[in-house]
Each structure stands twice: as C-alpha cells, then as structure tokens.
Amino acid sequence: MTTDSSNHRRYELRIVQQPTIGSAFHENLFSRIGLAPPLIVELKVLSDDNAEVEAFDELPFLLCQCSLVDESGRSADMVIPPTPSAPASAENRPTGPVSAPAASTSRRGRTSASGVRRRASRNSGSGTITATADANKTPGRSTPSSASSTTPTSATPAGVAPSLPDTPPTLTDASPNRLVRMLYGTIVASPQPFESPEGDVRPFFFFPEISIRAPGRFKLQCSLIRLSLPGLPSFGESAPDSGPLATAETETFEVVERQTYVAPYITEVSRHFARQGVPLLLPPGATAD
C-alpha cells in the first residue's frame, strides 16, 4: 500500500483469487495451459480517513503488472535455456574416399544390366565381375556392387528437450542474448469495474492466461503502476521511477510437467465473474452457471 500525497489517496491491491497449480509449457508456446484458477486482484483506493474512494476518473491510467518470483522472493522472470548438443564436427564425419558402384552403359547413356551380365559370364572363370561406367554420361544411375560399395553415415544431433532448473538464475548469470522469459500470457491488465461476490461494484484486474515455462514452486508478484504520458491528467507528482503505487503477492503454488497436470475444479469466484462476461477461459463444455 502506498500513499499519494498530492491527491491524498492510498492504494491497495487485494488478492481475490490466486492460482494453485500450473503446467510447464517448455518450448510449446502455442499449447500453453494457463495457471488455475486464474488470478484476480481487487483495487482499493482509500482517502486519508480510510474511506473508500470511487476513483473511476483515475482507472484508465492505472495498470497492474505481474512478475514471477521463487519461494525465497528472488526474481524468476528470466532463465537460461539448456544448450542443445552441437552437430557432429568435421573430424567425426567420414572423410575417406567413397568407392562408386560400377556399371556398364549403352549407347543411349543408360545403364545396361545385360552388359553387366554378359561381362560377368565372360569372366566367370576367374570369379570376377567387371563393370565399367562413364560417369559423365550417366550421372546418378548406377548399380551398386556388394563387394566394393561403401555407404557413408551422417551424424544427426538428437533434439534436447528443455529442462530448466527449479531455481532460475539471475540476470547477472548470463548474457541477455541467452535469456528467455519464464512468464507468458496476460501479465499486464487494466482495472475493470465489475460486481464483486459481495454485491458491490469494484475495480478488478483479471489475468486469465498466465503460463510458466518450467516446473517448480513460484509466487506471482502484482505491482500497481500509473501511466505517465505527456498530456494525461496528473494524479500525483511522484517520479516515474519512485516505485509502484501498491504491491501484492500470491501464496506459493506449484508448476508441474504436463503429463502429471490435473486441472482443478472451476471456483465459484470464476463462475461469478464469467457470468458477467469476463473472459476467464473456462474449460471446454464448462459453463458459468
């Protein structure tokens, strides 16, 4: 909670609903599963005497941003992805000459199998099959010889599945070019007035689709910030880098691998807001009633 001395308003963020489980998506960006149940945060604006203020004139300039932290509170927004195995080096690839299979050719430039048989019959006494081919006339059309052909092998690097650590490194552990985001989806929301479960209209922030890349135990940290753009009405004289107006943090939840993930039941809070038109991405076949 922070007090804005210029307009005598205090701001609070209250966690109405918080996630309990998530499914790690690793590199599968297009098949992400959002944290469940979805995060819902309520905004409260209070006066100096703790009376609640209807700050609808200020709502268009307020945003709530989510960031990811681990159990100890350390930032987990960025991690280092695993390095895939390098392709086979030139030293490991076959470098020796590969003997080309031999065959005889006809006048039209095609391989003649009968010519090979005739030559083989003439040389049957010595047990040797002799075949000749003009490589300039018959490219790519040859009959392999079981006695002299050699098949090269190519080294194909196997794909490495991403396995990020449970405790992500900090930004100082690697170059920014190697870092990837842990948090994807709806991580910034604007306040929207809806009827609360208690029956009164209040501003809420909805985060229906937050996904996390790697498994582990995490918390979401919510920060209330105010837009500071030229020409916008001023609701405070605080500097843009003075910090958030208010913060809130969820309890610790677990992100598991997809094959062990079991979605929880839809909560009554989710149904309450879904009935009012909030897009909370209910499972297929589920209704808000």
Automatic annotation (TrEMBL):
Cellular localization per UniProt: Nucleus
UniProt GO cellular component terms: nucleus
Entry-linked PANTHER family: SPORE DEVELOPMENT REGULATOR VOSA, VELVET DOMAIN-CONTAINING PROTEIN
Keywords: Nucleus, Transcription, Transcription regulation
Species this chain originates from: Testicularia cyperi
Protein name, as recorded: Velvet domain-containing protein
Region Disordered: start-end pairs: 77-175
Biased composition (Low complexity): 102-115, 142-175
Keyword hit for Nucleus: yes
InterPro entries (UniProt xref): Velvet (IPR021740), Velvet_dom (IPR037525), Velvet_dom_sf (IPR038491)
